[in-house]
Amino acid sequence: MLLPASNKRRTFAARYFAHSKSLVMGEQSQSPGQPPCSYRLGPVLKAGWLKKQRSIMKNWQQCWFVLHWDQLFYYKDKDETKPQGFISLQGMQVNQLLLGPEDVGKHLFEISPNAVEREKMPANPEVLLLMASSQRDMEDWVQAIRRVIWAPFGGGVFGQHLEDTVHLEQKYGPRLAPLLVEQCVDFIREHGLTEEGLFRMPGQANLVRDLQDSFDCGEKPLFDSTTDVHTVASLLKLYLRELPEPVVPFARGLWSWLNK
User: Fold this and answer.
1) In what order do the strands lie in the sheet with 107-113?
2) Rho-GAP domain location, by residue (predicted)?
3) Domain-by-domain residue ranges, the chain?
4) Separation between Cα atoms, residue 165 and residue 169, nearest integer Å
5) Mean pLDDT, the chain, as a whole number?
6) For 60, which DSSP code?
7) SS3 call for 42
8) CA neighbours within 13 Å on the CB side: how many for 254?
9) Looking at domain 162-241, what is its CATH homologous superfamily?
10) The pTM of the whole model exceeds 0.70
11) Are 233 and 192 in contact (CB under 8 A)?
12) Does domain 6-153 have CATH number 2.30.29.30?
């Protein structure tokens, strides 16, 4: 049975006005005169404006953030070439934050050391608190960062190219489709073929999001007899909808025929 992933999200008020530090590890580890060269790190996976909480005053600084594979750089301005700092995402985790009534309208998420890294650190490990301009923007950033963090461990499946996911999962055994797809299809075949409104009626939105988080975090949640088949169908639809390219690729098949 799938356990709720609500423990992956934390309450804002309880953690950040009591004790909070800004995680700027790039600034701490950077050698003098040798700023990180973001242009050598491959393509930009995501870029955009975010507000970053300062470490001492606890006020907010707007920065231009650029995600290059497992490095998150931030700049004073979009046109700057030298970053103010960077965060290495190895050994980190990213979580959305649930807000109290006094924080309505804020879209906050944190980047912090994972459980393994926290054991090597002091009692209050540093975290990076970020604010996006909208709920959708926050979710896009969390998804992009989580995908980077968990890709080496078989996670980050949503939004990945189909062939990349299959290639990665083949390291753990023969596979013709992603594990998520096989698991959803097998469950729907067993429990949903006689269900009215399958793929039309929505599943439980919170549970769909929890399942997505679990797969993106490298977990392999199992469905059982208590799992709602509409939720599983919604999860499969979400996965297919977020593919960078449809199952029938743009370059051939139906799309090529329509463009003739």
Assistant:
1) 10-11, 92-98, 107-113, 128-132, 46-53, 60-68, 71-75, 85-88
2) 166-260
3) 6-153, 162-241
4) 6
5) 78
6) E
7) coil
8) 4
9) Rho GTPase activation protein (1.10.555.10)
10) no
11) yes
12) yes
Residue 25 pLDDT exceeds 80: no
Q: Is the pLDDT of residue 9 over 90?
A: no
Q: What is the mean pLDDT of residues 223-247?
A: 90
- Cα 92 to Cα 79: distance, rounded to the nearest angstrom: 28
3-state secondary structure of 225: coil
* Range ranked top by mean pLDDT from 2-11, 67-76, 92-101: 67-76
Radius of gyration of the chain (CA): 20
pLDDT band at 14 (very low <50, low <70, confident <90, very high): very low
Structure tokens belonging to residue 148 = 């980077």
Cα of first residue to Cα of last residue in the chain, in angstroms, is 49
Residues 6+ apart with CB under 8 A from 147: 155, 156, 158, 159, 160, 216
Given a cut of 70, whether residue 15 has pLDDT beyond it is: no
Distance CA 8, CA 25 (A): 23
Distance in angstroms (rounded) separating the CA atoms of residues 153 and 218: 6
Give the per-residue pLDDT at 42.
64
